[in-house]
Amino acid sequence: MYAGVLVLLQHFCVLAGPVYYPELNPEHTLKSQTPGMNSNERLQWYLEQTRTEPDESMAAAQEEISEACAAILNVGGEIQEYVTQTDNNDFYLHHNAAGYEDVNGAAFFDSRCSFFPQDDQIIIHGHNMKGGAVFGRLNNYRDVGYLQRHPLITLTTLAGTDYYVLYAVTDVNVDMGAENYFLEIVWHFEPESFAHYTGYLKEKSYYDIPVDVEYGDRLLTLSTCSYVYSDSRLVLCARKLRPDETPEEMSALAAQSTLSGTKPDTIAPYTGGGDYENLSSQDLDALKYETEEEISYVANEMPDLFEE
Q1: Is a pLDDT exceeding 90 seen at residue 270?
Q2: Distance, CA of 9 to CA of 13 (rounded, Å)
């Protein structure tokens, strides 16, 4: 039963002394002992092998909702969602956290990201529902006052709770044919790519948030559909608090955020990004109406972002 643990401990012991095998590290060792497991399953295995008690709130959520529940996400102290993960990014678009069909879907980790061991960036997707379900209430962050009052995000897994603080909020264009296309789905960085990625987001952020980001920081991005561009996402970009930072200190720092004056590069009705040739005329009209309504909502909620 403990063979895997012995191998894991042996590698850790090697790393504790002179590094004779620099290609070995605890993360690689952990993954080699858990082939085919996703982050949640790997974390469960690790806790069992190390005889570590899981977080009580997450254990209760898994028992009550589903073992597929991988995390509890709390955004700003007011928005809470169970987060799932599977081997594709389609299932939870149409199923809730309990696994039942649901038009609202669920919040879910991008299938390409690992939260245990944690990648440089983990990304959570969710529908932007008008009724406020899932990530619908992330639109609250289109108001600087709301951001000032709710700048922290917590992510609870079986290993416990981590705190994150927002460093940027903006809409990015994910239409690959657009001049301002931005690839948001990145989970590993080199120093140069990290600086480019976070620098772009801070430059495009609607707010000047006095929170710095350095290579080595663990990033968390919440992504939901928006209609500022032809095919865009509203992204809330955060980084994990460092060991010498407290939630109270970082909350007070982010409360000093101000409007940056940055505006979207362009405002355009939805024109593509998917295969709509097979939609009925009724469905297409409904899509256009919803899109125009969404653009009006964004413009009314954030008038300072748009040119007269």
Answers
A1: no
A2: 6
